[in-house]
Amino acid sequence: MEGTNMIARTTFSAEPGTHEVSLSRIFDAPRELVFGALTDAEAVPQWWGPRALITAVDRLEAKHAGGWRIVQHDAEGNEYAFRGVFHEVSAPERIIRTFEWEGMPGHVALETFAFEAIGEQTRLTWSSVFQTVQDRDGYLMAGAESGATESWERLAEHLASTGR
Amino acid sequence: MEGTNMIARTTFSAEPGTHEVSLSRIFDAPRELVFGALTDAEAVPQWWGPRALITAVDRLEAKHAGGWRIVQHDAEGNEYAFRGVFHEVSAPERIIRTFEWEGMPGHVALETFAFEAIGEQTRLTWSSVFQTVQDRDGYLMAGAESGATESWERLAEHLASTGR
Question: Hey, which end of chain B has fewer CB within 10 Å, N or C?
């Protein structure tokens, strides 16, 4: 990873008794590139989700009232699908969208991604609010922190390889 | 309001320090009618918002990844516009959508409407979660409880007149 600083700078936050989870990290790439990694259907499978899964983009309409759907497969052939709709896509500053794991229909979260330029770097802050505190706690119990941190580690690697 | 029971049965809830506001009320109409009052572009202007404002539906695509936009005018000509996207529209049980007042762009809430049949009546429960507790508190300070209660009082009247 020559030329990049791979020290983990990820801050995960989940206050007890609230509806929210948030994650913040500085990436060694300008925010247009970080923004594009979240909205480009060819980029997303390179980093979204755990390394152990194969990720495919079924739909990614990055605009107001556009839909998105991502499908993952493990080595045993199990499928995990996620979907949502974009409320706002304001390049390169902000994305607001809904998120649902199709295995638990009706349980939906609202995700906000904020991209802040820090010189040639970008601070990405992701916040997700759930319909209930119980849903938020269930998400944490399912391994949200390690999953999200792994995704963003992969995103950092993807950006480093793209930027060469 | 012959044949209807107009006793207020609205329960408003907003726990301190959380992201959520919720409202629940039993309406004297079957849930297909209550559901339709929220998804029919001709019905919404009859009850949505305060009585003092004129309400018009600009867009109401009640389906996954459909957009909605509602515009209100007061007697002085001021305009108040609201918009969002539908994540789920499952008639006659559930609607999940985003909500934003265009006067505060980027501040978005996730709304869930649950329709429960109780004989010929319907319990409608609305829950809204905001991106931050501060946004939720700002919404309360702007008169959310009286505004929402007035809307649902109008909805009850609309349903009573429709059911005749």
Answer: C
Question: Are A130 and B129 inside 8 Å of each other by CB?
Answer: yes
With CA atoms as reference, the chain A residue closest to B60 would be A65
ipTM of predicted complex: 0.92
The pLDDT of residue A5 is above 70: no
Sheet strand arrangement including B66-73: B11-13, B20-27, B121-130, B108-118, B94-101, B79-90, B66-73, B54-60
The helix/strand/coil state of B134 is helix
To which residue do tokens 């934003």 refer? Answer: B100
Q: For chain B, list residues whose CB is within 8 angstroms of any CB belonging to chain A.
A: 17-20, 61, 64-67, 84-88, 90, 94, 96, 98, 100, 105-106, 108-110, 112, 127, 129-133
Structure tokens at B127: 């829950």
Say which residue the tokens 């909605």 belong to: B68
pLDDT tens-digit readout, B128-138? 999 999 999 99
Q: What is the pLDDT of residues A55-102, one digit of tens each?
A: 999 999 999 999 999 999 999 999 999 999 999 999 999 999 999 999
Provide φ and ψ at A15, rounded to 5°: -65, 135
Cα–Cα distances (Å) from B107 to A88, B73, B89, B90, in that order, read: 10, 21, 22, 26
